[in-house]
Design goal:
homodimer; 327 residues; alpha/beta; 434 Repressor (Amino-terminal Domain); Rossmann fold; DNA-binding
Chain lengths: 327, 327
DNA sequence: TATGAATGTGTAAACGGTTACACATTACTC
DNA sequence: GAGTAATGTGTAACCGTTTACACATTCATA
């Protein structure tokens, strides 16, 4: 691998008996280089186990072959797959990813962005509800918003949460549910608001009464809230949870209460994380194409970095209804 | 934030009417700077919204305030917490983390390491069974092995899998299990081998017959294998699964067969991932101090980077027995 | 008051690459 | 065979920092 001594381009040049410019040319495969010279240089490179210094290159080129990925919290089961997809795609394109957990704290996000600017990252993928266009508009590096659209001016890759929610509700109705509650996600979170809106619109269009319960996309509060919901309102026979994690929490509560799923009560989640297939009963859900989201956002960012993408793009995917045992 | 124009140290110097050396001195808070001069410089810095260029700094200092983190796969539920803890600790110390998923493919790991060397990362934390001391010995940057010990020569932070396994088996025996099977993890994986060894030793020391079934730390194969195990050998009344994911797979299979947990069969896992508390019945397990592992490995690495740590250290944590509903 | 230490500042050379430009040489074209 | 284009190579400036060194000035001490 690499020992204490690291050869520089000058060492290679000396050994090969050429100038550094020539070495650089063979390295980057550009400009004219005589075949014999190239051979000599390649030989010297091998002999010294020379690897061009990425930092020096960055300094001159103002590019680092790395991108920043800001997510709220990798511990949230939605993100590992997303991160994996991004890392994978970027790695194949020769880019390194700098990972940051922001907890959606604006101050922290801003600090992270400043940091990345000084490191010459070539682009940023961000998942955030707190950051707004005004915080980003002066930035000179490409940014894409992932999973949430931040503003019309920032390219994005996301899922149609509204339509997905309507599909979820429609399924429950189709299965004969008469009283359908919604365990909503946190306030001011884009995806949660959209899913709530979808629920409301679909319910209203069917002339059904709505029951909305607070939640924050987390398991434990969802358990508590479900307990409350079911004791307060015993005729509820369908629950649309704001995400799979909440649905799993709800299932725990429901099971604890001795209510049978899906006979007495049907439940559906949103996201399509693995957890849903692991629990009993397996969870029906609206599956987001997580890997595709990660991949597409990476490709989009790469296109912007390379200047291929000239117009602002917003990609929207549809969530896929996956029916399993909970409905 | 940062616009198209990025001020350099020369711009600051010019505006403040001093030399770049002086600006550098106030920036790094070292050497003598007259109070009045410092004021002027700080004023200029603010005025230009100047942020020192990390890349240029790296080039000269041969340091990047970043570290590499190589894990097999972030998608494996053990890793998100670990990654979070590392990122957190590093961020607080002013370091950025470069994340890589290696799938434990040696070629890829080596390539990643080469890449990091050219990027002047200050250190590496690696989780790997494939990489060996010989691949690392020529490296001049600090490395620490996480979750697995690679060799005596590489500092490490890990868990006592052997003793943990013995504790798990002892619990099952204490609960009255007569025939205890082990769903083992993948061959040649350090943690899996240690847990197997713990199982064997504890069983043998109690004069009990052993039943070992193959597995690879994954859910689906675990389900299949459990089905096989229970049809082949109906008297099994205790299962020690190599990790929690396998335990969850086993529980699914067991539930499907209509066998009641924990009355007819008890099961215990290893890891202490969140998943275990989410399923029904909640899983008994040997909880690894995942956050501590991440934190300690980061601190250890930082100490090596800063030259504080002079002797090679191996930290070993004990897994904690957590009894829940599956036993 | 002479002298050395402490304080304050600037110049220029690194760090390790890339590339504009200049200068040769060789290959075509008519 | 002259003129032009294509090919091949080197020199040196540049990217934006840090720091060794030199040089001044001020301060303290005997």
């Amino acid at each position: 691998m690499v020992g204490e001594f690291m050869a520089t381009i000058r060492d290679v040049a000396k050994l090969a008996g050429v100038s550094v410019a020539t070495v650089s040319r063979v390295l980057n495969n550009q400009g004219y280089v005589h075949e014999d010279t190239r051979k000599k240089v390649e030989q010297a490179i091998r002999q010294l186990n020379y690897k061009p210094n990425a930092v020096a290159r960055s300094l001159y080129k103002k590019t680092s072959k790395s991108i920043g990925l800001i997510i709220p919290d990798i511990t949230n089961p939605f993100f590992p797959q997303l991160v994996r997809a991004v890392e994978e795609t970027m790695y194949e394109a020769g880019y390194t990813v700098l990972l940051f957990n922001s907890d959606e704290v604006l101050k922290r996000e801003q600090h992270i962005i400043d940091l990345m600017v000084t490191k010459y990252v070539d682009g940023i993928i961000i998942v955030s509800n707190t950051i707004k266009y005004e915080h980003l508009k002066d930035l000179s590096i490409p940014i894409v918003a992932l999973d949430r659209v931040i503003s019309q001016e920032i390219p994005s890759v996301s899922v149609d949460n509204y339509e997905g929610a309507r599909k979820a509700v429609r399924l429950l109705i189709g299965k004969g549910c008469k009283k359908i509650a919604h365990l909503r996600g946190p306030k001011n979170v884009f995806t949660a608001e959209e899913r709530l809106r979808g629920y409301m619109d679909e319910m209203n269009s069917q002339g059904m009464e709505t029951f909305v319960y607070a939640g924050n996309y987390e398991l434990n509060t969802s358990m508590v809230e479900t307990m409350k919901l079911l004791t307060e309102n015993r005729e509820i026979d369908g629950i649309f949870a704001g995400n799979d994690v909440m649905a799993v929490g709800a299932i725990k509560a429901i099971t604890k209460l001795g209510i049978h799923i899906p006979d007495q009560l049907k439940i559906i989640g949103f996201d399509g994380i693995e957890l849903g297939t692991v629990i009993t009963p397996e969870l029906s859900t609206l599956k987001q194409p997580i890997v595709q989201l990660g991949k597409k956002s990476s490709e989009l960012l790469l296109n912007y970095i390379n200047g291929n993408e000239k117009v602002l793009r917003h990609y929207v995917y549809q969530a896929e209804l996956i029916e399993r045992d909970s409905t």
